[in-house]
């Protein structure tokens, strides 16, 4: 069973969620680096300014607890607490206001997110590394769809939600979090509480709000194109087509597409 971590403990290990511990901010909230029970962890503080579906949050937390796969980021603990906090208003008066803390704690990934590697071209021209990332991402998504008791849809698969460890092995993160928000400024609303990122969204999701495992496969395909073609790979693919895209990858100096023999 994944343990509940007290808010008081989270405040201590993040120095009250200070900027010195902050390592990033995504569409779902801010992320802090901390050490808990001698393990480095990533503390994801979900955005309290957005309306969160509490029932869906518990459902997604339950999904995270059941998932165990080498290509899925491991959940370390969680927190779901309500506090009464002293708030100073614009007119100078003060009141006690309710603040809801919903926190998910994951293993810390030293390799950061895939999108940062793609934008900085830090993966180089080593095809085995690119292939390792593609293969691991495929296996992680296959596990979510076919290896769990009930299929789990990610609905926001993209390089920013694929984290790399020290050896550049990929691990899928943030699966299902797109469902817990009833409103969102940084994501495109498609149906109910489902949101995503436009470039990686399947046409049927974007236009009709039809969600299925095929939508994740579409996002996976776009992600693979990005891994092969670098940041902006999708635009190049759409502009020139598949054949020209392959030529672009070779001529452009990346030279990572090679024949592979799979044993």
Automatic annotation (TrEMBL):
Top enzyme category: transferase
Entry binding sites for ATP: 44
UniProt keyword Acetylation present: no
PROSITE patterns membership: PROTEIN_KINASE_ATP, PROTEIN_KINASE_DOM, PROTEIN_KINASE_ST
The protein's Enzyme Commission number: 2.7.11.1
Record domain Protein kinase: where: 17-263
Keywords carried by this UniProt record: ATP-binding, Kinase, Nucleotide-binding, Serine/threonine-protein kinase, Transferase
Protein origin, superkingdom: Eukaryota
GO molecular function terms attached to this record: ATP binding; protein serine/threonine kinase activity
Catalytic reactions of this protein: L-threonyl-[protein] + ATP = O-phospho-L-threonyl-[protein] + ADP + H(+); L-seryl-[protein] + ATP = O-phospho-L-seryl-[protein] + ADP + H(+)
Plastid listed as a keyword: no
InterPro entries: Kinase-like_dom_sf, Prot_kinase_dom, Protein_kinase_ATP_BS, Ser/Thr_kinase_AS
Family: Belongs to the protein kinase superfamily.
Protein name in UniProt: non-specific serine/threonine protein kinase
């Amino acid at each position: 069973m994944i343990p509940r971590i007290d808010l008081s403990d989270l405040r201590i290990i993040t120095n009250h969620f200070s900027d010195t511990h902050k390592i990033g901010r995504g569409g779902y909230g801010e992320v802090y680096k901390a050490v808990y029970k001698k393990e480095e962890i990533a503390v994801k503080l979900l955005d309290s300014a957005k309306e969160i579906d509490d029932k869906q949050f518990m459902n997604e937390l339950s999904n995270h607890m059941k998932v165990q796969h080498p290509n899925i980021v491991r959940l370390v603990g969680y927190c779901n607490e309500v506090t009464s906090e002293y708030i100073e208003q614009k007119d100078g008066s003060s009141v006690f206001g309710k603040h809801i803390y919903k926190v998910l704690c994951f293993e810390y990934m030293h390799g950061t997110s895939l999108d940062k590697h793609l934008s900085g071209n830090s993966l180089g021209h080593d095809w085995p590394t690119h292939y390792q990332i593609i293969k691991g991402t495929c296996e992680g998504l296959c596990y979510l769809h076919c290896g769990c008791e009930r299929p789990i849809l990610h609905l926001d698969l993209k390089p920013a939600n694929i984290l790399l460890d020290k050896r550049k092995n990929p691990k899928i993160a943030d699966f299902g979090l797109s469902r817990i928000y009833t409103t969102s400024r940084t994501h495109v609303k498609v149906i109910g509480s489902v949101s995503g990122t436009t470039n990686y969204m399947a046409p049927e999701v974007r236009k009709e709000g039809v969600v299925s495992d095929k939508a994740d496969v579409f996002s996976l395909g776009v992600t693979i194109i990005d891994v092969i073609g670098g940041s902006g790979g999708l635009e190049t693919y759409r502009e020139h087509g598949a054949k020209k895209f392959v030529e672009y990858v070779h001529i452009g100096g990346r030279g990572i597409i090679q024949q592979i023999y799979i044993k």
